């Protein structure tokens, strides 16, 4: 074999080895990391809150004079107040407690057979309620609520055609309330709510004016309101 043949054989062998060696030296780049977005954080979280509320009331006064019941009278008015409470979120539901108090313009008046103007007013309403709710999404909650209701009522009678002097008296009525609502988290801290409450108050006796019979008065009615709260996480 000539030197030329040997040289060609070595050249061919080297050409085959070089790509294999290069392949052995090549390291593929690491795979690109797969981005997985974090699960959304719910805005409905446990915490204390404070806020303001406003609504409309419609109710019925059931008045009894000397054990002879008068027809029920309807009254209308607005309520503006404040609320404070605490919510605790667990797996799939919420438990909370809330207290609120509002000034009321609920009013009814009528003229009796002696020409005197008689009026009934609710001056304020306060409730202490439990709440139980179920989150529909990360920022929307529906709930039921119920508990104690307390209100101050005032009855007033003007002068009449036979010269009897006017008079008035106020009483505190205790009772219960129940209802439902829905709450939406505008931000992590700001909550907007719509709520319905039925209110039923006890019967109390009024001595409105000297020389007039005692009057027994009770109240039941409906409250629809909206509320804005700030929650501290």
TrEMBL record:
<comment type="similarity">
    <text>Belongs to the Omp25/RopB family.</text>
</comment>
<protein>
    <recommendedName>
        <fullName>Outer membrane protein beta-barrel domain-containing protein</fullName>
    </recommendedName>
</protein>
<feature type="domain" description="Outer membrane protein beta-barrel">
    <location>
        <begin position="9"/>
        <end position="232"/>
    </location>
</feature>
<dbReference type="GO" id="GO:0009279">
    <property type="term" value="C:cell outer membrane"/>
</dbReference>
<dbReference type="InterPro" id="IPR027385">
    <property type="entry name" value="Beta-barrel_OMP"/>
</dbReference>
<dbReference type="InterPro" id="IPR011250">
    <property type="entry name" value="OMP/PagP_B-barrel"/>
</dbReference>
<feature type="signal peptide">
    <location>
        <begin position="1"/>
        <end position="23"/>
    </location>
</feature>
<keyword id="KW-0998">Cell outer membrane</keyword>
<dbReference type="InterPro" id="IPR051692">
    <property type="entry name" value="OMP-like"/>
</dbReference>
<keyword id="KW-0472">Membrane</keyword>
<keyword id="KW-0732">Signal</keyword>
<dbReference type="Pfam" id="PF13505">
    <property type="entry name" value="OMP_b-brl"/>
</dbReference>
């Amino acid at each position: 074999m000539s030197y030329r043949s040997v040289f060609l054989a070595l050249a061919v062998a080297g050409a085959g080895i070089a790509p294999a060696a290069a392949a052995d030296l090549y390291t593929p780049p690491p795979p690109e990391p797969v981005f997985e977005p974090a699960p959304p954080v719910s805005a409905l979280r446990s915490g204390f809150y404070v806020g303001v509320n406003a609504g409309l009331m419609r109710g019925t006064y059931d008045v009894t004079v000397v054990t002879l019941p008068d027809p029920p009278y309807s009254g209308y008015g607005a309520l503006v107040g404040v609320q404070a409470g605490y919510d605790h979120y667990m797996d799939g539901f919420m438990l909370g407690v809330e207290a609120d108090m509002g000034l009321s313009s609920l009013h009814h008046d009528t003229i009796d057979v002696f020409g005197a103007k008689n009026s009934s007013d609710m001056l304020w309403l306060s409730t202490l309620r439990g709440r139980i709710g179920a989150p529909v999404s990360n920022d929307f909650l529906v709930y039921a609520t119920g508990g104690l209701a307390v209100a101050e009522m005032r009855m007033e009678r003007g002068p009449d055609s036979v010269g009897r002097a006017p008079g008035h008296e106020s009483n505190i009525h205790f009772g219960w309330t129940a209802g439902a609502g829905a709450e939406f988290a505008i931000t992590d801290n700001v909550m907007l709510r719509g709520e319905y409450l039925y209110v039923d108050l006890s019967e109390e006796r009024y001595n409105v004016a000297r020389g007039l019979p005692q009057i027994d008065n009770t109240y039941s009615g409906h409250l629809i309101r909206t509320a804005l709260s700030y929650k501290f996480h």
